[in-house]
Structures are given as C-alpha cells and as structure tokens.
Amino acid sequence: MKLPAIFAASAIVTVGAAATIHHASSAETSAPAADVAAAEALTEDAGHNSEAGLAAAAEHDAPPLPAPVPAEFAEWIIKASGECEGVTPGQIAAQLFAESTFRVDAVSYANAQGPAQFTPETWEAWGTDADGDGVKDPFSIPDSVTAQAKYMCHNLESVEQAIHDGKAEGDAVDLALASYNAGFGAILRFGGMPSGGDYTTQTQPYVEKIRDLEQAFNAYFEARV
C-alpha cells in the first residue's frame, strides 16, 4: 500500500492481525527520556508459557489474554516499565503483541524491525544498548523493549505538554500510542487523535487494540507478583 504524502515518513507494519502505520522517522518526532525481584518471580514461578501462568490471571478476574508473555520478555518488560509512571508492564506487553506477537525476528515489508518494530530511522534516534553488549540491536529483546519504553515515555511527555499548551486534546496515553504509531507530528496537525484515511483505519484501531490488551496483560503481571 502506498501512503498519502502525509504518511511519507511512516512505515506500514504487516506483522500481526492488521497492518498499521508505524514509527515516523526522526524528522517527524522531536528528539529529547522495576523491580528485578518481581521480574525474577515472574519468570521463575510456573513460567509465562505454562498453563499455570494463564490460570493465575484468570483467578484475578482478568480479561482473557490473547497470548502468554514469553519468559524471556518478562524481566525486561518490568524493568522498562520503570522508565516513567505512564508506561505500565501491561501496556508494553500489549504493544509488543500488537506489533509483532513477541516475534524477535519480525521484519515488515517497510523494514520495521524486531519485536517493537522500529524503523531504522527511529532506531537511530532511540536505539538502546540495554544489555551492555556494546551493540544497539533492534532484534535484541533487552534493547528493543527498553527503547520502546523510552520512546513511549518521550511521546507521553510531549503529548502532555501539547495538551497543557492547548495544542492537543484527548487522553494522553491514547495520543502517546498514536504518536508511537503515526508520529507526534500527526497529533499536532490534528490537535489530538489523527483521523481520516489511514489514521482512521489503522492508527485509531491500533490505539484501541492496545488499550484493550493492556487491561489483560496488566492483570496478568499483577497476578504473577
């Protein structure tokens, strides 16, 4: 699919249930910003791929999970959620599921890469060497999950400032997710949630999907600590 001119800096992600506009380049965004014990408990107690792990969420009256959280993601999701108050473990997990269904090797036809589906341009601005191996690797779970959280925190801060300045209206988390998908510039152009064309068919459903999934994943994490 060829995007209109307003989407020229974005990519289309085809991994998962539906294609989405994804990650504006650094030109569209303004470049700027856990509990380890809990993470260990998460990964060691029954395991995220086990039936016991899924049952734990059900016992807490959680919404149904679309998929278990892979154990290798759990520790880094919890650590990354400490980047800022507005980013929760459930939100990070929901985004990863929506972006790549936790596939480490995911690559879209527009070359968005890794479990968090960063385009090379956005990764250049936000890539992180979270595991200290000397390489900023979008296919690395620690690097991509940490960069995802940092980028979301930046989007949230930018959106909150825009709302404060009267440049945007709406729920800050919704708009931060839309920024992750379509770029912060789209939020400013529309004064809130972008609409029309691919924004209506892709960005808005992307935000709605993650907010719905976030509830289930948050309940799952809460049940495991």
TrEMBL record:
It comes from the Bacteria. Residues 80-189 form the Transglycosylase SLT domain. Residues 1-24 form the signal peptide. GO terms for biological process: peptidoglycan catabolic process. One of its GO terms (molecular function) is peptidoglycan lytic transglycosylase activity. Keywords: Signal. PANTHER family: LYTIC MUREIN TRANSGLYCOSYLASE, MEMBRANE-BOUND LYTIC MUREIN TRANSGLYCOSYLASE B. This is Soluble lytic murein transglycosylase-like protein. It comes from Hoyosella altamirensis.
